[in-house]
Amino acid sequence: MINLTNLHKSYTKIKVLKGIDLFFDHEGIIAILGPNGSGKTTLIKSILGMVIPDRGDIQLNGDSVLHKWDYRNNISYMPQIASFPQNLKVEELIKMIKNLRRQETKEAELIQLFQLKPFLDKKLGILSGGTRQKVNIVLTFMFDSPFVILDEPTTGLDPVALISLKQILREEKKNGKTILITTHIMNLVEEIADQVVFLLDGNIYFNGTVNELKEQTQHDNLEHAIAEILKESYV
Amino acid sequence: MSLTHMFTSVASSLSFFIFVSSAVFAKEIKVCPNCEKASITQAIKTAQPGDTLLVGKGIYQEHDIRIDKPLTLIGQDLPLIDARGKGYGFKIYADSVALIGFKFVNVGVSYTSDFAAIYTSRIHHFRFENNRFENVFFGFLIEKSHNGIIKNNTIMGNAVKEYSSGNGIHLWHSSKIQIQDNHIEKMRDGIYFEFVKHSIIQRNKSRNNLRYGLHFMFSNDDRYENNIFEKNGAGVAVMFSKNISMRKNIFRLNWGTASYGLLLKEINDAEIIDNTFEQNTIGVNVEGSNRINYENNNFINNGWAIRFLGACYGNKLLRNNFLHNALDVSYKGMMNGNLFDKNYWSSYAGYDLDKDNIGDVPYRPVKLFSYIVNRTPETIILLRSLFVDIINFSEKVSPIFTPDNLQDFHPIMTPIKYHD
Amino acid sequence: MFKILKYSFFDLMRSRWSYVYFLFYLILGFILFFLNNDVTKAVITLLNIIIVLTPLIGTIFGVMYYYSSREFTELLLAQPLKRSTIFLGQYLGLSLSLALSLIVGLGIPFILYGIFQSSAILDFATLLLIGGYLTFIFVALAFNIALSFNDKIKGFGFSILLWLFLAVIYDGIFLLSMVFFHDYPLDKFALGATMFNPIDLSRILILLKLDISALLGYTGAVFQKFFGTSMGMILSLCILSFWVILPTFFLVKKAQIKDF
């Protein structure tokens, strides 16, 4: 259960979050959408404790997480840009994260799935962007956390890897997890999201299912539905 | 064996030997604790001029032992004269006295009289050799005496305060004295000269003295060479004197707030040649001194190598080595005919394109920082900081504060070797 | 914290720059000891290099490391770790690796040269200790600056400015004010001003070990009292430790409230 109440955040002069209230109490995949600068990443990072909100509260399973750190044992996070220490080898990085969390892991099958074996003894600095992103996925899904947060997970992935990712997401959902995703790929949203949260200028513009969004905007195509919202808001 | 030893030591001084041999009927008198004559004082009373007293091993608790006739006193196996803090050891009022091989202890400290282990007044042709001194107020106090030799003596004091300690070898109004191969430690001044002329100080070692290792006042035409002055409170001071020759001495480890290797004040026409000044706060401190030749000296690892404090005219520094001193030269005032030439400077950064071993650009021994420290001593706290390096460099490129013609126009490229 | 320290440390030890830095000191050491046989002179030359270079390298590496490992830091921030753990670990990892490059780089030629038979061993040890201190101080200062500026260029600019200020400008102002007010008693002011600059303080500490301390005492009773006793040495070391502790404390404070 994730509960955000009246979340405010501003950077110097720009107000990024203007009183967000959100409540997820079920398993499933929640897509957080919104144009650039709408506050998606800030929202996610607030939950992770990387951004400290000016006002409001964040609760995970009923406990406030502000200024705490051990709740992150229950969260797996996949950052937007996978940039790792250049001189570490892939297996060393995996070992290191495992070492830091000390939880049960299942990296072997993920490495198998994404065919990363040949890269295990390579330094991260020499890997391509896509391969690094695969490593990123392995690092995220090797832990069995009840909450998963993904920031633009598809960046740089080839179609095969993308299919594998979707497969994983469905499985994890089946396992009863709450998964938050930010993305600009509307196909992905349509395909897997159970709930869509649309952020606009630091406020929640829409919160509901994909179908509800389509109904509200009277567009069959999600991409067009989104575009419609944006057009309206800028008029 | 002791006889042959005595013979050689006596014979080695020709002038004295001639004098002794003129007393043809000289006889030997034995003195020892179990002898017929157990007291040195008594033995002297009965002795005839020219006699030799052979003093055996033992402790002689005597003081103010008066010698008023020409005598030779020879200690066998270092007899001990214990003055028990009551006064002088020997007081000598006669010419041609020799004192050889005694040990002196407990010569009393006095604030009214200068108690000394060996005191002389108005005598000629004396010879003091191979004596040892421990816990004595003054070692030698030589007044108005001439033509003497003070040789191979060891004076070990334990001076703590200047006012309650005396000097090792103290000469006053004397002349033609030779002071050789003595070892003096922990006195007030190691060797002190006041109104002493035509004398020589050679091969002595003067260390750990409270004030000066060697102290010259109003003494002209003297020479000191091959001495070692080390760890003295204020180093060596030569003041108000003329025609002093200082050669091949070593001045080292005089660290302290007011310590100098050599302090020169009002000195005229002297020569300072082949000396080594090593690790002193100030190698040579010069004030009001004229026409001094500094040649072939080594200045090594001093705070300042040489410091001119004004009123110095016609001094020449030729072919000296300046090695790794924090500041080479400190200088006040105009050039005044002083000259730096053909020295080796370890901090010289010039080049020698024509390979004649003389740098092609002149060296400026006075750094801007040295000039600043002279004006504001506290700035020394910035020694070796990057900013100081920068201002020194800029001053080197375009001098504003330091005398423009204060330069060594022929800096040597390699250290000068000598002493062999 | 030790895990982060370990990873940062080994990550850095394998980087090209660590090798360059290490090799620089190694070559410098060999040049100093084998080309001129005077250990005292070598120590003095090293003094000049260490009090200028270790702060500069500490500053540049500190800022560079912070900015280049920003994404990795974010990865760590999402893990169940305290912020102080992450930043202290990185700070100590970097400082230790730099200090190690310095100590091993200079230590090898010194040992080969036979420093253990030399009386300069204590001077040399002091020199390395001070070099280590300066590294820790300036990496901490650099981290503080980097944490304050998200803009890399600004961060670099400010940290170089800080180095320039402490290494040169401060002494310039210090010297000028002493010359200007030279009619007043200056010794206490001079001592105080030295304490406020870690580079000056380090320089004095090394000079105290060398026999030059007598030269410093030359100027007056306050200096002599301070420099002539072990009190001065202990006090200087304490203040130098403060120079490590305070920026580290602020670093942790800053990291606590920063958004990533």
Can you summarize this structure?
The complex is a heterotrimer of chains A (235), B (420) and C (260). With 420 residues, chain B is mainly beta. Chain B is elongated.
Any overview of this molecule?
With 235 residues, chain A is α/β, with parallel strands linked by helices. Chain A has eight helices and ten strands. Chain A has one domain (2-234): Rossmann fold, CATH 3.40.50. A six-stranded mixed beta sheet of chain A has the order 6-7-8-3-9-10, sandwiched between helices. In chain A, strands 2-1-4-5 form a four-stranded antiparallel beta sheet, covered by helices on one side. In chain A, strand 9 and strand 10 form a beta hairpin. The N and C termini of chain A lie far apart (37 Å). Chain B has 420 residues and is mainly beta. In chain B, 11% of the residues lie in helices and 38% in strands. The longest helix of chain B has 12 residues, at 386-397. The two termini of chain B are 37 Å apart. Mean pLDDT of chain B is 89; it is low at 1-18. Chain C is mostly helical. Chain C has one domain (2-257).
Write the layout of secondary structure elements.
The complex is a heterotrimer of chains A (235), B (420) and C (260).
Chain A: E1 2-11, E2 14-24, E3 28-33, H1 40-48, E4 55-60, E5 63-64, E6 75-78, H2 90-101, H3 107-113, H4 129-141, E7 147-151, H5 159-174, E8 178-182, H6 186-192, E9 195-200, E10 203-208, H7 210-217, H8 222-234
Parallel strand pairs in A: 3-8, 3-9, 6-7, 7-8
Antiparallel strand pairs in A: 1-2, 1-4, 4-5, 9-10
Helix pairs in contact in A: 7-8
Chain B: H1 2-11, H2 14-22, E1 28-31, H3 40-46, E2 52-55, E3 59-60, E4 65-67, E5 72-75, E6 80-82, E7 90-92, E8 98-100, E9 103-107, E10 116-121, E11 127-129, E12 132-136, E13 138-143, E14 146-151, E15 154-156, E16 169-180, E17 183-185, E18 191-197, E19 200-202, E20 205-207, E21 212-217, E22 223-225, E23 228-230, E24 235-242, E25 245-247, E26 250-252, E27 260-268, E28 271-273, E29 276-278, E30 282-287, E31 293-295, E32 298-300, E33 304-308, E34 316-318, E35 321-323, E36 327-330, E37 339-341, E38 344-345, H4 368-375, H5 386-397
Parallel strand pairs in B: 1-2, 2-5, 3-6, 4-7, 5-8, 6-9, 7-10, 8-11, 9-12, 10-13, 11-14, 12-15, 13-16, 14-16, 15-17, 16-18, 16-19, 17-20, 18-21, 19-22, 20-23, 21-24, 22-25, 23-26, 24-27, 25-28, 26-29, 27-30, 28-31, 29-32, 30-33, 31-34, 32-35, 33-36, 34-37, 35-38
Chain C: H1 2-13, H2 16-35, H3 39-68, H4 70-77, H5 83-113, H6 121-148, H7 152-180, H8 187-195, H9 198-209, H10 213-217, H11 221-228, H12 230-257
